[in-house]
Protein backbone atom coordinates (compact mmCIF):
# COMPACT_ATOMS: atom_id res chain seq x y z
CA UNK A 1 0.00 0.00 0.00
CA UNK A 2 1.42 3.38 -1.00
CA UNK A 3 1.71 5.95 1.74
CA UNK A 4 0.69 9.35 0.45
CA UNK A 5 2.15 12.31 2.39
CA UNK A 6 -0.58 14.56 3.78
CA UNK A 7 -3.29 11.89 3.43
CA UNK A 8 -4.46 8.84 5.27
CA UNK A 9 -6.23 5.80 3.83
CA UNK A 10 -9.63 5.04 5.36
CA UNK A 11 -9.91 1.70 7.14
CA UNK A 12 -13.28 1.36 8.89
CA UNK A 13 -16.47 3.24 8.08
CA UNK A 14 -16.61 6.55 10.00
CA UNK A 15 -20.30 6.00 10.74
CA UNK A 16 -20.61 2.32 11.68
CA UNK A 17 -17.04 0.97 11.85
CA UNK A 18 -17.62 -1.81 9.26
CA UNK A 19 -14.91 -2.64 6.71
CA UNK A 20 -16.95 -4.23 3.92
CA UNK A 21 -16.55 -1.61 1.18
CA UNK A 22 -17.94 -1.63 -2.33
CA UNK A 23 -15.55 0.16 -4.69
CA UNK A 24 -17.71 2.63 -6.57
CA UNK A 25 -15.59 4.95 -8.65
CA UNK A 26 -12.01 6.03 -9.15
CA UNK A 27 -11.44 9.50 -10.61
CA UNK A 28 -7.66 9.14 -10.61
CA UNK A 29 -5.12 11.52 -9.11
CA UNK A 30 -6.66 14.96 -8.72
CA UNK A 31 -5.35 18.20 -7.15
CA UNK A 32 -7.19 19.91 -4.28
CA UNK A 33 -10.32 21.64 -5.55
CA UNK A 34 -9.93 24.90 -3.62
CA UNK A 35 -6.16 25.18 -3.97
CA UNK A 36 -6.12 28.00 -6.51
CA UNK A 37 -2.64 28.98 -7.65
CA UNK A 38 -0.85 32.27 -7.75
CA UNK A 39 0.43 32.77 -11.33
CA UNK A 40 3.59 34.46 -9.99
CA UNK A 41 4.83 31.42 -8.08
CA UNK A 42 5.94 28.06 -9.43
CA UNK A 43 3.44 25.22 -9.39
CA UNK A 44 5.73 22.29 -9.89
CA UNK A 45 4.91 20.93 -6.45
CA UNK A 46 1.13 21.09 -6.73
CA UNK A 47 -0.10 18.19 -4.60
CA UNK A 48 -2.27 15.49 -6.20
CA UNK A 49 -4.24 12.93 -4.22
CA UNK A 50 -6.27 9.87 -5.19
CA UNK A 51 -9.99 10.59 -5.59
CA UNK A 52 -11.79 7.31 -5.08
CA UNK A 53 -15.25 6.62 -3.69
CA UNK A 54 -16.38 3.61 -1.69
CA UNK A 55 -19.74 2.57 -0.29
CA UNK A 56 -20.06 0.88 3.10
CA UNK A 57 -22.19 -2.21 2.63
CA UNK A 58 -23.32 -2.09 6.27
CA UNK A 59 -24.69 1.48 6.56
CA UNK A 60 -24.29 2.66 2.93
CA UNK A 61 -22.16 5.66 3.76
CA UNK A 62 -20.39 6.74 0.58
CA UNK A 63 -16.87 7.81 1.49
CA UNK A 64 -13.61 8.80 -0.12
CA UNK A 65 -10.90 6.25 0.46
CA UNK A 66 -8.29 8.91 1.36
CA UNK A 67 -8.57 11.67 3.92
CA UNK A 68 -6.37 14.70 3.24
CA UNK A 69 -5.04 16.43 6.38
CA UNK A 70 -7.59 19.16 7.30
CA UNK A 71 -4.76 21.52 8.25
CA UNK A 72 -3.77 21.48 4.56
CA UNK A 73 -7.34 21.98 3.38
CA UNK A 74 -8.86 24.57 5.67
CA UNK A 75 -6.50 26.86 7.56
CA UNK A 76 -6.38 29.34 4.75
CA UNK A 77 -9.57 28.88 2.79
CA UNK A 78 -10.62 30.50 -0.45
CA UNK A 79 -14.26 29.55 -0.41
CA UNK A 80 -16.42 32.46 0.59
CA UNK A 81 -20.16 31.94 0.57
CA UNK A 82 -21.06 33.62 -2.72
CA UNK A 83 -23.19 36.74 -2.93
CA UNK A 84 -26.11 35.00 -4.54
CA UNK A 85 -29.85 35.47 -4.34
CA UNK A 86 -30.30 31.68 -4.33
CA UNK A 87 -28.10 31.30 -1.25
CA UNK A 88 -29.56 34.31 0.54
CA UNK A 89 -33.08 32.94 0.07
CA UNK A 90 -31.99 29.53 1.27
CA UNK A 91 -30.34 30.94 4.39
CA UNK A 92 -33.53 32.78 5.24
CA UNK A 93 -35.43 29.52 4.77
CA UNK A 94 -33.11 27.72 7.17
CA UNK A 95 -33.84 30.31 9.85
CA UNK A 96 -37.60 30.16 9.22
CA UNK A 97 -37.67 26.36 9.22
CA UNK A 98 -35.85 26.20 12.51
CA UNK A 99 -37.94 28.90 14.16
CA UNK A 100 -41.27 27.46 13.01
CA UNK A 101 -40.44 23.91 13.95
CA UNK A 102 -38.54 24.41 17.21
CA UNK A 103 -39.81 27.76 18.46
CA UNK A 104 -36.64 29.29 19.93
CA UNK A 105 -36.85 32.42 22.06
CA UNK A 106 -34.98 35.70 21.82
CA UNK A 107 -31.66 35.37 23.63
CA UNK A 108 -31.29 31.65 22.85
CA UNK A 109 -27.81 30.69 21.65
CA UNK A 110 -27.17 29.49 18.09
CA UNK A 111 -23.72 28.08 17.29
CA UNK A 112 -22.64 27.40 13.73
CA UNK A 113 -19.65 25.32 12.72
CA UNK A 114 -18.09 26.17 9.38
CA UNK A 115 -19.67 29.58 9.77
CA UNK A 116 -17.52 31.13 7.00
CA UNK A 117 -17.90 34.92 7.05
CA UNK A 118 -21.02 34.79 9.22
CA UNK A 119 -23.82 35.32 6.68
CA UNK A 120 -26.11 32.64 8.11
CA UNK A 121 -25.55 33.65 11.73
CA UNK A 122 -26.31 37.27 10.99
CA UNK A 123 -29.85 36.17 10.02
CA UNK A 124 -30.28 34.34 13.33
CA UNK A 125 -28.98 37.42 15.15
CA UNK A 126 -31.62 39.42 13.27
CA UNK A 127 -34.26 37.28 15.02
CA UNK A 128 -32.88 38.27 18.42
CA UNK A 129 -30.79 35.17 19.05
CA UNK A 130 -27.26 35.20 20.38
CA UNK A 131 -24.79 33.72 17.89
CA UNK A 132 -21.28 32.25 17.89
CA UNK A 133 -19.39 30.95 14.86
CA UNK A 134 -16.70 28.26 14.80
CA UNK A 135 -14.53 28.11 11.69
CA UNK A 136 -10.92 26.97 11.33
CA UNK A 137 -10.18 29.32 8.41
CA UNK A 138 -8.44 32.15 10.23
CA UNK A 139 -8.72 34.47 7.23
CA UNK A 140 -12.52 34.04 7.21
CA UNK A 141 -12.97 34.14 11.00
CA UNK A 142 -11.28 37.57 10.94
CA UNK A 143 -13.78 38.81 8.34
CA UNK A 144 -16.70 37.42 10.38
CA UNK A 145 -15.43 39.16 13.53
CA UNK A 146 -15.13 42.41 11.60
CA UNK A 147 -18.77 41.88 10.56
CA UNK A 148 -19.76 41.64 14.22
CA UNK A 149 -20.14 37.84 14.41
CA UNK A 150 -18.05 36.40 17.28
CA UNK A 151 -16.10 33.51 15.73
CA UNK A 152 -13.77 30.92 17.27
CA UNK A 153 -11.03 30.20 14.70
CA UNK A 154 -10.94 26.44 15.34
CA UNK A 155 -12.22 23.10 14.11
CA UNK A 156 -15.40 22.11 15.95
CA UNK A 157 -14.66 19.39 18.55
CA UNK A 158 -15.52 18.45 22.14
CA UNK A 159 -12.91 20.95 23.29
CA UNK A 160 -14.25 23.85 21.24
CA UNK A 161 -17.80 22.90 22.28
CA UNK A 162 -16.77 22.99 25.95
CA UNK A 163 -15.01 26.34 25.48
CA UNK A 164 -18.05 27.88 23.78
CA UNK A 165 -20.33 26.54 26.52
CA UNK A 166 -18.07 27.94 29.23
CA UNK A 167 -18.09 31.42 27.77
CA UNK A 168 -21.60 31.65 26.24
CA UNK A 169 -23.72 28.98 27.95
CA UNK A 170 -25.53 26.00 26.38
CA UNK A 171 -26.93 26.25 22.85
CA UNK A 172 -30.44 25.77 21.57
CA UNK A 173 -29.17 25.05 18.07
CA UNK A 174 -25.89 23.75 16.72
CA UNK A 175 -25.87 24.14 12.96
CA UNK A 176 -23.44 22.83 10.35
CA UNK A 177 -24.30 23.76 6.77
CA UNK A 178 -22.16 22.04 4.18
CA UNK A 179 -19.45 21.23 6.66
CA UNK A 180 -20.49 17.86 8.06
CA UNK A 181 -19.51 16.04 4.86
CA UNK A 182 -16.02 17.53 5.32
CA UNK A 183 -15.43 16.04 8.77
CA UNK A 184 -13.59 12.79 9.42
CA UNK A 185 -14.13 12.53 13.18
CA UNK A 186 -17.93 12.48 13.22
CA UNK A 187 -18.00 10.95 16.70
CA UNK A 188 -16.01 13.94 18.00
CA UNK A 189 -18.57 16.33 16.52
CA UNK A 190 -21.53 14.44 17.95
CA UNK A 191 -19.87 14.33 21.35
CA UNK A 192 -19.30 18.08 21.00
CA UNK A 193 -22.98 18.57 20.14
CA UNK A 194 -23.98 16.62 23.23
CA UNK A 195 -21.70 18.78 25.37
CA UNK A 196 -22.93 22.04 23.90
CA UNK A 197 -26.70 21.65 23.58
CA UNK A 198 -29.44 22.28 26.15
CA UNK A 199 -31.49 19.08 26.87
CA UNK A 200 -34.03 19.90 24.15
CA UNK A 201 -31.40 21.38 21.87
CA UNK A 202 -31.20 20.62 18.18
CA UNK A 203 -28.25 19.60 16.06
CA UNK A 204 -28.91 20.46 12.40
CA UNK A 205 -26.66 19.46 9.53
CA UNK A 206 -27.04 20.22 5.87
CA UNK A 207 -25.24 17.93 3.44
CA UNK A 208 -25.23 17.31 -0.29
CA UNK A 209 -27.93 14.66 -0.62
CA UNK A 210 -26.55 11.42 -1.98
CA UNK A 211 -29.86 10.61 -3.63
CA UNK A 212 -29.63 13.78 -5.72
CA UNK A 213 -25.97 13.18 -6.47
CA UNK A 214 -26.68 9.69 -7.78
CA UNK A 215 -29.84 10.67 -9.65
CA UNK A 216 -28.21 13.63 -11.43
CA UNK A 217 -24.77 12.06 -12.01
CA UNK A 218 -23.36 14.97 -10.04
CA UNK A 219 -19.89 13.47 -9.72
CA UNK A 220 -18.48 16.98 -9.36
CA UNK A 221 -19.74 16.90 -5.76
CA UNK A 222 -16.84 14.51 -5.30
CA UNK A 223 -13.64 16.27 -4.27
CA UNK A 224 -11.21 15.82 -1.42
CA UNK A 225 -13.10 18.08 0.99
CA UNK A 226 -16.21 15.92 0.76
CA UNK A 227 -15.25 12.85 2.72
CA UNK A 228 -18.82 11.56 3.12
CA UNK A 229 -21.92 11.41 0.91
CA UNK A 230 -24.91 10.91 3.19
CA UNK A 231 -28.38 9.51 3.00
CA UNK A 232 -30.95 10.04 5.75
CA UNK A 233 -30.67 6.32 6.49
CA UNK A 234 -26.92 6.58 7.09
CA UNK A 235 -27.34 9.70 9.23
CA UNK A 236 -29.94 7.83 11.30
CA UNK A 237 -27.38 5.12 12.04
CA UNK A 238 -24.94 7.79 13.15
CA UNK A 239 -27.52 9.58 15.30
CA UNK A 240 -28.61 6.33 16.98
CA UNK A 241 -25.03 5.47 17.85
CA UNK A 242 -24.86 8.77 19.72
CA UNK A 243 -28.18 8.50 21.55
CA UNK A 244 -29.82 10.93 19.17
CA UNK A 245 -32.64 10.73 16.66
CA UNK A 246 -33.51 12.43 13.41
CA UNK A 247 -36.64 14.44 14.10
CA UNK A 248 -37.09 16.31 10.82
CA UNK A 249 -35.67 16.64 7.31
CA UNK A 250 -36.02 19.19 4.52
CA UNK A 251 -34.72 18.86 0.98
CA UNK A 252 -33.62 21.83 -1.09
CA UNK A 253 -31.98 22.43 -4.43
CA UNK A 254 -28.92 24.31 -3.11
CA UNK A 255 -25.55 22.89 -4.14
CA UNK A 256 -27.29 20.69 -6.66
CA UNK A 257 -29.53 18.98 -4.10
CA UNK A 258 -29.10 19.04 -0.34
CA UNK A 259 -30.87 17.74 2.69
CA UNK A 260 -31.14 19.52 6.02
CA UNK A 261 -31.41 17.03 8.86
CA UNK A 262 -32.49 17.95 12.39
CA UNK A 263 -31.34 15.69 15.22
CA UNK A 264 -32.27 15.78 18.89
CA UNK A 265 -31.50 13.72 21.98
CA UNK A 266 -33.47 10.47 22.14
CA UNK A 267 -35.19 11.52 25.35
CA UNK A 268 -36.02 15.04 24.20
CA UNK A 269 -39.53 16.37 23.65
CA UNK A 270 -39.19 16.43 19.84
CA UNK A 271 -40.98 13.74 17.83
CA UNK A 272 -40.05 12.52 14.36
CA UNK A 273 -42.12 13.85 11.47
CA UNK A 274 -43.52 11.71 8.66
CA UNK A 275 -41.04 13.42 6.30
CA UNK A 276 -38.20 11.44 7.86
CA UNK A 277 -39.80 8.08 7.13
CA UNK A 278 -40.80 9.27 3.68
CA UNK A 279 -37.23 10.03 2.68
CA UNK A 280 -35.97 6.79 4.15
CA UNK A 281 -38.58 4.96 2.08
CA UNK A 282 -37.51 6.84 -1.03
CA UNK A 283 -33.90 5.91 -0.42
CA UNK A 284 -34.86 2.30 -0.03
CA UNK A 285 -36.91 2.31 -3.24
CA UNK A 286 -34.09 4.02 -5.12
CA UNK A 287 -31.85 1.08 -4.28
CA UNK A 288 -29.38 2.77 -1.94
CA UNK A 289 -29.01 -0.46 0.02
CA UNK A 290 -27.78 -2.60 -2.87
CA UNK A 291 -24.64 -2.50 -5.02
CA UNK A 292 -26.39 -1.91 -8.32
CA UNK A 293 -27.25 1.76 -8.02
CA UNK A 294 -23.58 2.58 -7.37
CA UNK A 295 -22.42 0.59 -10.38
CA UNK A 296 -24.92 2.47 -12.53
CA UNK A 297 -23.71 5.80 -11.12
CA UNK A 298 -20.12 4.93 -12.11
CA UNK A 299 -21.27 4.08 -15.64
CA UNK A 300 -23.23 7.34 -15.92
CA UNK A 301 -20.18 9.30 -14.77
CA UNK A 302 -17.99 7.65 -17.38
CA UNK A 303 -20.54 8.60 -20.04
CA UNK A 304 -20.47 12.29 -18.99
CA UNK A 305 -16.68 12.20 -19.01
CA UNK A 306 -16.75 11.06 -22.63
CA UNK A 307 -19.51 13.35 -23.87
CA UNK A 308 -18.46 16.62 -22.26
CA UNK A 309 -14.95 16.81 -23.76
CA UNK A 310 -16.42 15.85 -27.13
CA UNK A 311 -18.82 18.82 -27.03
CA UNK A 312 -16.25 21.31 -25.71
CA UNK A 313 -13.52 20.24 -28.13
CA UNK A 314 -16.04 20.24 -30.98
CA UNK A 315 -16.84 23.91 -30.33
CA UNK A 316 -13.15 24.80 -30.12
CA UNK A 317 -12.41 22.94 -33.37
CA UNK A 318 -15.09 24.93 -35.16
CA UNK A 319 -13.44 28.18 -34.06
CA UNK A 320 -15.68 28.91 -31.06
CA UNK A 321 -14.42 30.11 -27.68
CA UNK A 322 -15.37 28.32 -24.49
CA UNK A 323 -14.92 29.85 -21.03
CA UNK A 324 -15.94 28.49 -17.65
CA UNK A 325 -18.79 30.21 -15.83
CA UNK A 326 -17.90 30.22 -12.14
CA UNK A 327 -14.81 28.66 -10.62
CA UNK A 328 -16.45 26.47 -7.97
CA UNK A 329 -14.58 23.67 -6.29
CA UNK A 330 -16.82 21.20 -8.08
CA UNK A 331 -15.79 22.67 -11.44
CA UNK A 332 -12.24 21.60 -10.80
CA UNK A 333 -13.36 18.00 -10.51
CA UNK A 334 -15.06 18.27 -13.89
CA UNK A 335 -12.14 19.97 -15.64
CA UNK A 336 -9.43 17.76 -14.16
CA UNK A 337 -11.28 14.47 -14.56
CA UNK A 338 -12.43 15.29 -18.11
CA UNK A 339 -8.97 16.57 -19.10
CA UNK A 340 -10.27 20.01 -20.08
CA UNK A 341 -7.37 22.44 -19.75
CA UNK A 342 -6.50 25.91 -20.99
CA UNK A 343 -6.12 24.66 -24.56
CA UNK A 344 -9.92 24.47 -24.75
CA UNK A 345 -11.18 26.53 -21.78
CA UNK A 346 -9.83 30.04 -22.28
CA UNK A 347 -10.57 31.32 -18.75
CA UNK A 348 -13.11 31.10 -15.97
CA UNK A 349 -15.26 33.97 -14.80
CA UNK A 350 -15.96 34.14 -11.07
CA UNK A 351 -17.48 36.76 -8.77
CA UNK A 352 -15.24 35.87 -5.78
CA UNK A 353 -12.47 38.53 -5.59
CA UNK A 354 -10.13 36.07 -3.82
CA UNK A 355 -10.23 33.74 -6.84
CA UNK A 356 -9.77 36.39 -9.52
CA UNK A 357 -6.25 36.58 -10.92
CA UNK A 358 -5.51 33.04 -9.75
CA UNK A 359 -5.15 29.82 -11.77
CA UNK A 360 -7.35 26.78 -11.34
CA UNK A 361 -5.69 23.81 -9.65
CA UNK A 362 -4.40 21.21 -12.09
CA UNK A 363 -5.62 22.77 -15.32
CA UNK A 364 -4.12 26.23 -14.65
CA UNK A 365 -7.01 27.95 -16.41
CA UNK A 366 -6.89 31.65 -15.37
CA UNK A 367 -9.78 33.09 -13.33
CA UNK A 368 -11.04 36.59 -14.06
CA UNK A 369 -13.89 38.86 -12.99
CA UNK A 370 -17.26 38.80 -14.78
CA UNK A 371 -16.50 42.31 -16.10
CA UNK A 372 -13.29 41.13 -17.75
CA UNK A 373 -15.05 38.03 -19.06
CA UNK A 374 -17.64 40.21 -20.72
CA UNK A 375 -14.89 42.17 -22.50
CA UNK A 376 -13.29 38.97 -23.72
CA UNK A 377 -16.67 37.82 -25.04
CA UNK A 378 -16.61 34.03 -25.37
CA UNK A 379 -19.45 32.47 -27.40
CA UNK A 380 -19.93 29.51 -25.05
CA UNK A 381 -19.84 29.23 -21.29
CA UNK A 382 -19.32 25.88 -19.63
CA UNK A 383 -21.60 26.27 -16.63
CA UNK A 384 -19.39 24.91 -13.87
CA UNK A 385 -21.62 26.62 -11.25
CA UNK A 386 -24.63 24.71 -12.64
CA UNK A 387 -26.27 24.66 -9.21
CA UNK A 388 -27.07 28.35 -9.80
CA UNK A 389 -28.26 27.71 -13.37
CA UNK A 390 -31.54 29.53 -13.11
CA UNK A 391 -30.13 32.64 -11.42
CA UNK A 392 -27.14 32.79 -13.77
CA UNK A 393 -29.00 32.27 -17.03
CA UNK A 394 -31.51 34.97 -16.08
CA UNK A 395 -28.65 37.33 -15.24
CA UNK A 396 -26.92 36.56 -18.56
CA UNK A 397 -29.92 37.22 -20.78
CA UNK A 398 -27.82 39.72 -22.77
CA UNK A 399 -25.20 37.07 -23.55
CA UNK A 400 -27.94 34.65 -24.61
CA UNK A 401 -29.72 37.28 -26.71
CA UNK A 402 -26.43 37.87 -28.55
CA UNK A 403 -26.35 34.20 -29.58
CA UNK A 404 -24.23 32.91 -26.68
CA UNK A 405 -24.85 29.42 -25.34
CA UNK A 406 -24.30 27.63 -22.04
CA UNK A 407 -23.02 24.10 -21.83
CA UNK A 408 -24.71 22.41 -18.91
CA UNK A 409 -22.40 19.58 -17.78
CA UNK A 410 -24.82 17.86 -15.39
CA UNK A 411 -26.95 15.63 -15.44
CA UNK A 412 -25.70 15.01 -18.96
CA UNK A 413 -23.89 17.49 -21.16
CA UNK A 414 -26.22 19.63 -23.26
CA UNK A 415 -26.31 23.11 -24.80
CA UNK A 416 -28.97 25.43 -23.40
CA UNK A 417 -30.05 28.94 -24.27
CA UNK A 418 -32.59 29.84 -21.59
CA UNK A 419 -33.09 29.53 -17.85
CA UNK A 420 -36.22 27.43 -18.45
CA UNK A 421 -34.34 24.96 -20.62
CA UNK A 422 -31.57 24.61 -18.03
CA UNK A 423 -34.04 24.08 -15.19
CA UNK A 424 -35.92 21.50 -17.23
CA UNK A 425 -32.73 19.60 -18.05
CA UNK A 426 -31.76 19.55 -14.38
CA UNK A 427 -35.18 18.54 -13.16
CA UNK A 428 -35.61 15.80 -15.74
CA UNK A 429 -33.06 13.75 -13.89
CA UNK A 430 -34.65 14.03 -10.46
CA UNK A 431 -37.99 12.28 -10.61
CA UNK A 432 -37.94 11.85 -6.89
P1 LIG B 1 -20.50 27.03 -5.10
O1 LIG B 1 -21.37 26.25 -6.00
O2 LIG B 1 -21.15 27.82 -4.06
O3 LIG B 1 -19.54 26.05 -4.38
P2 LIG B 1 -18.46 24.90 -4.50
O4 LIG B 1 -17.15 25.64 -4.56
O5 LIG B 1 -18.71 24.24 -3.20
O6 LIG B 1 -18.64 23.98 -5.66
O7 LIG B 1 -19.56 27.96 -5.95
C1 LIG B 1 -20.09 28.80 -6.89
C2 LIG B 1 -18.98 29.60 -7.50
O8 LIG B 1 -19.52 30.29 -8.62
C3 LIG B 1 -18.40 30.65 -6.56
O9 LIG B 1 -16.99 30.67 -6.71
C4 LIG B 1 -19.02 31.94 -7.05
C5 LIG B 1 -19.28 31.68 -8.49
N1 LIG B 1 -20.46 32.38 -9.03
C6 LIG B 1 -20.27 33.28 -10.08
O10 LIG B 1 -19.14 33.49 -10.54
N2 LIG B 1 -21.36 33.93 -10.57
C7 LIG B 1 -22.62 33.74 -10.07
O11 LIG B 1 -23.59 34.36 -10.56
C8 LIG B 1 -22.80 32.81 -9.00
C9 LIG B 1 -24.15 32.55 -8.43
C10 LIG B 1 -21.68 32.14 -8.50
ZN1 LIG C 1 -20.84 2.09 7.57
Automatic annotation (TrEMBL):
Domain C-methyltransferase: 254-411
Residue stretches making up the Methyltransferase putative zinc binding domain: 13-74
InterPro entries given in the database record: Methyltransf_Zn-bd_dom_put, Methyltransf_Zn-bd_dom_put_sf, MeTrfase_14, SAM-dependent_MTases_sf
Parts of the chain that traverse the membrane: none
Alphabetized UniProt keyword annotations: Methyltransferase, Transferase
Gene3D superfamilies: 6.10.250.3100, Methyltransferase, zinc-binding domain, NAD(P)-binding Rossmann-like Domain, Vaccinia Virus protein VP39
GO molecular function: methyltransferase activity
Highest taxon of the lineage: Bacteria
GO biological process: methylation
Pfam families tied to this protein: Methyltransf_13, Methyltransf_14, Methyltransf_23
Name assigned to this protein: Class I SAM-dependent methyltransferase
Amino acid sequence: MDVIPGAREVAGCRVCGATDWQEVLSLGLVPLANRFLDPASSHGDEPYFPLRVLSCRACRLMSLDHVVDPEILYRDYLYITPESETIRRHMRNVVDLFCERFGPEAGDLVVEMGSNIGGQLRLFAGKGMRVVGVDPARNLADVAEANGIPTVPEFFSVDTAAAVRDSHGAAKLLLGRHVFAHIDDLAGVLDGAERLLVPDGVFAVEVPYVLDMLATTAFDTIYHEHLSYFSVGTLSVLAERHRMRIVDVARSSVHGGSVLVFMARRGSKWRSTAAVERLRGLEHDFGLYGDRVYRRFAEDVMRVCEELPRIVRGIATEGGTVAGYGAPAKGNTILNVCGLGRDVVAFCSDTTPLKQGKLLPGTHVPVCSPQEARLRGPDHYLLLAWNYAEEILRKESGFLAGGGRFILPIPRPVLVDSAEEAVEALQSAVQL
